[in-house]
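Exercise 7. Predict the structure of DUF4185 domain-containing protein from Nakamurella endophytica.
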Amino acid sequence: MLALSAVTGTAAAQVPTGAGAAPSAHRGGGHGYVATEACVGGTSKLPAPTVTSAVLDTRWTDTFRRFGDSGGGWPDHGGWAASDGTYSTTLPGGRVAWMFNDTFLGPVNRDESLPRDAGFVHNSIALAGRDGVPRVTVTGGTRRSPESLVGATVTAPPWDPSGTNSRWYWNGDGIVDGGKLRILEYAQKPTDAAPPWNFQWTDTMIATFSLPGLKLESVTPTYDQSNISWGVELFRCGGWTYIYGMESGNMHVARARAGHLTDNLWQFWTGSGWSTDPTASAPVIDNVGSSYAVTPVGGSFVLTTSDHYLGDKIYTATAPAPTGPFTHRKEIFTAPEAGGNIYAPYNIAAHPEISAPGHLVISYNVNSQKIDDLYANANNNRPRFVDLTLGRS
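Solution. The predicted structure, encoded as tokens:
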């Protein structure tokens, strides 16, 4: 039984006409050229790719640092300043949408601290051109009174007792499907736990946005049986949209016909085949992070993930098909920020849209168990990027 009724969206995205537009052909409704060249589902005779090096990508890390310091593309400098939940997807015409979760809004102080009264929304988008460089922040509401793109008006961060946070949404991955941008949304509710862990996932929805205007059209329920949060990864392959989920550190896989993500006619991997019964979904691999990435590359599928519980490592594994079986994980990177109050990495995501041939750019998020650290330095809540060089075993 699906939780909740459909909710009609009312937020109007604040998108200037032509923002981030790039003339040229659409690269496809998935994750860009890396994904579209590789969806052969294990029929490739090439050996599986291996990660031969993993280095901090200062170009992309600094790109988002500059974007935040300069005001997130808003003339009043009140756009994106810092956030987590760094997902990306290609839009028609080649633009890239960067989808974020808890988002601080500017302006950022010259020393990169945030004012204590900085604006805050639970989800946002940054629009980029074909080069992937973010150009403008998209929120709900207005620039004078920004709101989350999806969900109720937020008056304060969840750790502030004066705020209105009875229910809010965090973005999962997104994909263009049926001519619309669909983003998986994780509904959250507050708990009595100590901040910053005072939240609990309740169910998963799909937010539908018009294109090119990014107007929220609807938020509709989808599967949440078996306590699986679907949508940490989405990609198009062989006429199907593959949907990855997480349940207590276990990977799950579902799929829907391309163009029919919101029809609730998904199929679920049982370990030996596909079933329309969501409770039949079987774990594919254990000890994946709350958000992880699976990327089609050259006929294989590359997993990048952190540990299920907080650690400082990123791992990779490969599989011949979207459903596995995956190789044993290989440690490839240690987040240098981890330590003390700072926890990293988490929310691993892959970004084929900005990856060069033979490489895969991934991101991870940084946060702190002390809210004061985020106000003191916006970089304590901004994404880091890592460039993986791929070879053949």
